[in-house]
Amino acid sequence: MAAAVMIRPGESQDVTFLRDMVRHTGLDRSGVTIDAEPPPLSRYVVGWGRAGDTALVAFDGTTHVAVGAAWCRLFTAAEPGYGFIDEATPELTVAVVPSRRGEGIGQALLTAIVEQARADGVAAISMSAVRDTPAVALFEENGFRVIREHGTAVIMALDL
Ligand SMILES: CC(C)(COP(=O)(O)OP(=O)(O)OC[C@H]1O[C@@H](n2cnc3c(N)ncnc32)[C@H](O)[C@@H]1OP(=O)(O)O)[C@@H](O)C(=O)NCCC(=O)NCCS
Known about the structure:
By secondary structure, this protein is an alpha+beta fold. It is 19% helix and 29% strand. Coenzyme A is lined by residues 24-25, 93-96, 101-107, 127, 129, 133-135, 137-138, 141.
């Protein structure tokens, strides 16, 4: 990762940034529907701070501008995320701003959030990404296995 980029815990004031970042996943255009509707991406951040919410933010050490984020959130069967497996398995979202991709920031965020989840005693995490994107290769390289596919979304999980 670029030397000037650092990672810190996410706070409630980062929710607007997380809301922007989740749009980069493109999952709302993946063809996944529940009751004929794509799950709203706002579901990944609304009411931030509930049990299980954990976020890390990567920021430029010179400008202090946020450049990426990784966060875990538990969902319910009634209001699932795109990578929902069960109510005990947090779903992970990782995104880096387009202008800072390919610098190792995504890998650093992924490594850090997996370490955090493991330290928190989480047994497994899931995620969902659009097929044929760099995200799928990144997660596969980090040991995630494919659980199912739905539309163009690939749902993966990692046992911790
Ligand atoms: C997935 C994502 C987070 C990767 O972030 P990044 O900072 O660019 O990733 P890194 O620079 O750490 O690269 C990690 C690995 O990903 C792969 N990768 C990254 N960008 C790639 C690209 N444009 N083409 C092919 N592979 C790529 C490579 O395998 C790379 O490993 P390497 O170091 O051996 O080259 C970023 O592309 C992104 O924000 N995508 C949109 C959000 C998303 O889809 N998130 C996943 C769903 S939650």
